Amino acid sequence: MLFDIFNKEQFSIAETASLPTREEIEEKYKWDLTHIYQTDDNWEEDFNWVEINISSYKKFEGKLSQGSDILLECLKFDDSIGMKIDRLHLYASLAKDGDMKVFKYQAMDDRIRNLATKASSAASFIRPELLDIPDEVLMSMLQANDELKVYKHFFDDLLRTKAHTLKKELEELLAESSEIVQIPYNAFSMFTNADMKFPLIKDDEGNDFEISHGRYYVAMYSPDRSFRERTFKNYLSQYKNYANTFSVLFNGNLKANIFNSRTRKYNSTREAALDRYNIPISVYDELINAANINFKPLHRWAELKKKLLRIEELHPYDVYVNLFQTGAERKYTFEEAKEIVFKALKPLGEEYLTSLKKAFDNRWIDVHETQSKRSGAYSSGTTFGVHPFVLLNWNGLLNDIFTLAHEMGHNMHSFYTGNTQPYPYANYSIFLAEVASTFNESLLLDYLISNAESKIEKLDLMEKYLSNITSTFYRQVMFAEFEALVYDKVESGISLTPDLLCKLYRELYKKYWGPEIVIDEEEDFTWTRVPHFYYNFYVYQYATGFAASEVLVKKVKEEGEPAVKKYLNFLKAGSSDYPINILKSAGVDMNSPEPVIAVTQKMDELLNEIESLID
């Protein structure tokens, strides 16, 4: 239906003069935005078309109950507006993210968001007007026109959410307020992306090292502990310095989401967030409960890591460093990484590999870190009629290869969905998205372990698997528990001061990592820098996706082609059914605890094998 701007998997950016400019990077390493629009002028043409045609919504208002023909015409018109806005947003956001100092693209991105809000407001009558039609009449209209039958799941979902859809005037008001609701996140993003400055420190070789978001993550893998500590403390101290500002933005975001959920008559913001894709709250609760009774593998890993590092205290800046590298971590070119990922994903068959090669060979990926480019990584999601794009910030580490595999999981999911589903279902929930990404990471790890040339290399790769479980499962569950805690407090009238937020985060960090961890004060302020906390109950889906992917990878390895076929059908399903049902068709029941528990059992198995190899 009408385009809904959603938060992609994304992180903040940093500007540093020591990074190359975008112009210094070869074209083959930059995405080709002419695949969306040949020129900015073409973008303006579509923008103007939407701006002019928004007024045409009025001809449908008050008439949807008059028959199936007018209803179909309205829905198809709404789709046509949505397709244009999706495409306009994709172009503007990618152009902006490539260099956030180019004000032209910042302005274009802002303009399309404003236009999307206007279109959403103009279309806001559709849902309440459809819900005013008696259910049996609406269903008979659906049966009376073959072209309307494509919208059956849309209508089923509409009727499911009937109790939370408001009258026309209130829907218009909420649509108009959507930009205001986004202000806390937009301010957070711009502040951390463009305005925050990080200090110059000495790196592990005594050279001047200007911290950036991307370089912070690289530094946490350095074998030089004093360098890790310097980077950790100097990086997070900048967030500590602005804790009051971040607290205001964070609280503003929470209250905006609470306002929306209460307006729609939900019992809680969490219920409202999960109900969008018909995810039972029991799935969220089961995830946290299962993790809380299965901390032993993570505590065991912390104890082993401390022992192998031969340190008296394990600190947060120690938890990512590699234990089993024999020297400086190997660097990979992007070309080497593509070849490795291609070989690792061979179990998915020729259809998948052909699509992957198409993405690799046709500039769907923006590779290198440059000045004022958004850091981290994301895939752009499905934009009907255009292939998806991937943003990377390549540092050449093994972790970057996993990031490539991860984002190409998203990318192929979007590509297959866009090529298979009609526009109303040519997207998918994040609940499903993280299955495809972590599935690819798991296959990559299996491939690398199978091709390890020495015991130390095998140990290194198994440690990587443990780190994946730590960061993609336990850490995300911890974030999910933190998010549930802070919303519960605000919804019950408790004010979230910086001190309280730090206390809550510290207590959770200690609970998850166990008795071996010694928490530095700087770690308490991690809540200030996590953009996903602005995404409204987003992070739990990393953990559920990771658990589901573990089950699916096992099926592909054990069953071969039949399981591959089911998995490809999963990638092509889009939002044609509810996420829980789509996963069940692929072979995973997320209403059971088994997928989550399987992850913790896998961690124990890996720890057993590591201990046997180092004895």
Could you name the key traits of this structure?
615 residues, mainly alpha, Butyryl-CoA Dehydrogenase, subunit A, domain 3, 3-stranded mixed β-sheet, two-stranded antiparallel ribbon, 24 helices, 3% strand, disordered N terminus
Write the layout of secondary structure elements.
Blueprint: H1 40-53, H2 68-98, H3 103-122, H4 126-132, H5 135-144, H6 152-160, H7 168-181, H8 183-195, E1 200-202, E2 208-210, H9 213-219, H10 225-241, H11 243-263, H12 269-275, H13 281-292, H14 296-309, H15 334-344, H16 349-361, E3 365-368, E4 378-379, E5 390-394, H17 398-420, H18 430-450, H19 455-491, H20 498-513, H21 540-559, H22 561-572, H23 579-586, H24 594-614
Describe what this molecule looks like in 3D.
- The chain has a domain at 33-181: Up-down Bundle (Butyryl-CoA Dehydrogenase, subunit A, domain 3).
- Helix content is 61%, strand content 3%.
- It has 24 helices and five strands.
- It has helices at 40-53, 68-98, 103-122, 126-132, 135-144, 152-160, 168-181, 183-195, 213-219, 225-241, 243-263, 269-275, 281-292, 296-309, 334-344, 349-361, 398-420, 430-450, 455-491, 498-513, 540-559, 561-572, 579-586, 594-614, and strands at residues 200-202, 208-210, 365-368, 378-379, 390-394.
- Helix 8 (183-195) packs antiparallel against helix 11 (243-263), helix 21 (540-559) packs antiparallel against helix 22 (561-572) and helix 22 runs antiparallel to helix 23.
- The relative contact order is 0.12.
